[in-house]
Amino acid sequence: MEILHLSNIINSPLNFIDADLEDTKVRNSYALKTPTATLPFLETGIGNISQSISIEIFLSEKFKRDILGKNNFERAKINQWIEFANCEIQNCARELIYPIFRGKTENNMNKLNSENSDKKLKKNLTILEKEFKNGNKYIMGNDITLADVVLFRYLRFFMMFYLTEKIRNSLCPKLTQWFENIMNTKEAIDAYGRTVLCKKQLKPLEIKQEKKVNKILDKGADNISENKEIKKEKNILDLLPPSKFDLKNFKKNFFENKNKNEVMTNFWKQYDPKGYSLYFIEYENLPSESTKLFRMKNSKNFFLERFDENFKYYSFGIHGVYNANNEYKIRGVWLCRGENIPNEIKENDYFKYLKIRKLKSDNDTDKKLVEEFWTKCNKGDLVDEKKVEECTYFY
Fold first, then answer.
1. Domain extent at residue 97
2. Which of 48, 52, 81, 121 has minimal CB crowding within 10 Å?
3. Tens of pLDDT along 18-59?
4. Backbone dihedral angles phi then psi of residue 55, each to the nearest 5 degrees
5. Whole-angstrom Cα distance, residue 340 to residue 346?
6. Is 206 inside any structural domain?
């Protein structure tokens, strides 16, 4: 995405290939074409180049040299900030951002590492904040440079998942203004899609929870809702009248029974429309997002990552990316406690970009939609006249 962002800025005729790099064979086939066996890589008329910064320097030299600096001093300063981003900012991500997606353990050592990384990150943000005190629009003045492109990329996940509005306003308001200025440009939107700033700081899963999830996926749904490693917090939904529908038992049956048609038949017999609600949820993507599969996968994951683990006690859903003629949509069908949209969905940073429709259990068309989303989850399956590209269970 960083390379695409730069390409948009310098108007280079880059032909971007949206490959499924989660497929090992596809990934390896591309890696063989690169000098370092790493991705991304750039094919040129005189050979291939890998590593993002190297590709960006090559493109900048060819199409807009000024973005690398107008003299030796500026070029050195730009390289300075690129190294700062690559080393200082990136190192903080290893403890503060990566665990959000990988479920790293919260033992004492990792907690200490996270605290140290938090202090280091805030120190680095203070350093960057000083560069904008003199009214600079960009890190080097009033013209965007490669340093801005690289810094934006490395700071983006922190702005989306870690740095709340309170932190941004108190610690780095000028830096935040610089970031928002870039994220709202057409060049950045085309490359990254929407950048949704953090409201609530996200926390990583504990390693015990991760192992429990792996056990469910590998060996069936034994004790799926008896995970004692997660402390169930009080929720306003606990105050609702008891429901005859047993969500825990449904989840257990759903994952254990290979006959999903039988599961759904039993589901409709047990479903309680006064105690639970069904929703069709679709992300209102930007036109520039709909043709880029990797970006839609990211947006789907970012939406799901923003839910607290405790919300799984009150919900079940299948959310994915679906394809019709290479136009991608993020959509899903959810079962949630209560008769109204839960606060957990309303408070999700992506809520304002969602179309939500309540489904009726006595409507055959709605019932068919639920059954298709929940029983057809393999790549290529046809769901609501769109093919599955990737889908995720939320349980």
1. 66-192
2. 48
3. 777 677 887 888 888 888 888 888 999 899 999 999 999 999
4. -65, -45
5. 10
6. no
